[in-house]
Amino acid sequence: MSDVTHLTMTEALALLGKGELTSVDLTKAHLAGMEQARSLNAYITETPEKALAMAGESDKRRKAGQAGLLEGIPLAIKDLFCTEGVQTTAGSHILQGFKPPYESSVTTNLWNQGAVMLGKANLDEFAMGSSNMTSHYGAVKNPWKRKGDERDLVPGGSSGGSAAAVAACLAMGATGTDTGGSIRQPAAFCGIVGIKPTYGRCSRFGIVAFASSLDQAGPMTRTVGDAALMLKAMAGHDPKDSTSAPQPVPDFTKSVGASIKGMKVGVPKEYRPDGLSADIIGAWDKGLAWLKEAGAEIVEVSLPHTKYALATYYIVAPAEASSNLARYDGVRFGLRVPGNSLDEMYMKTRAEGFGREVKRRILIGTYVLSAGYYDAYYAKAQKLRTLIASDFSQAFETADVLLTPTAPTPAFGLGENLDDPITMYLNDVFTIPTSLAGLPGLSLPVGLSSDGLPLGLQLIGRPFDEETVFKAAHVMETAAQFKRWEAR
Amino acid sequence: MSLDKATVQKIAYLARIEVKDEELEPLARELSGILHWVEQLSEVNTEGVAPMTSVAGELALPMRQDKVSDGGYPEKVLLNGPETTNGFFLVPKVVE
Question: Is the pTM of this model over 0.90?
Answer without folding.
Answer: yes
